[in-house]
Give the backbone structure.
Amino acid sequence: MRLRAAVLCDFAQVREGLLTMVSAGITRLYRADLPGPFGMFIALLIELEGLERALPHEVLVIVRGPSGTQVAEVRGALQLQPDASAQLDSDEMVLVALPLDLRQAGIAEYGWHVVTITGDDEPLDTMRVKVARPPQPSSGAGPTGFNVPKARRPH
């Protein structure tokens, strides 16, 4: 089992074996007040090869806050149906989409949160997401620091 993609996003689902992600690539989460909800999904693409396809697999995602406190633990199970695996060549790999819902996890700290992903008790990946207070509005400067022209009314 190999992790081919892990993305934090607003929403994720699987339809006909394909992964759909909405607003993917979150690395920073703004919350004016804590505690509050984590409010996102983690979308995973997992590669299975040969004999792995016939076996059941478990994926575990753990989120820890800056102090090391566990914020969330979500498990997902996957196994290909025998008829799906029978259609593949013996040396062919398959990507399995697995969206996991982290929306209701409660966060209580600002700072970097660590997301650890394991598969069948083996480490697959680690990623970080920062929980921060919303930035204060500035006078005309855009998020990159460039001035953004104000909309003009037609005459």
Notes: The chain has a mean pLDDT of 87. The first strand starts at residue 2 and ends at 15. The CA atoms of residues 139 and 147 lie 9 Å apart. Residues 82-86 form the longest helix (5 residues).
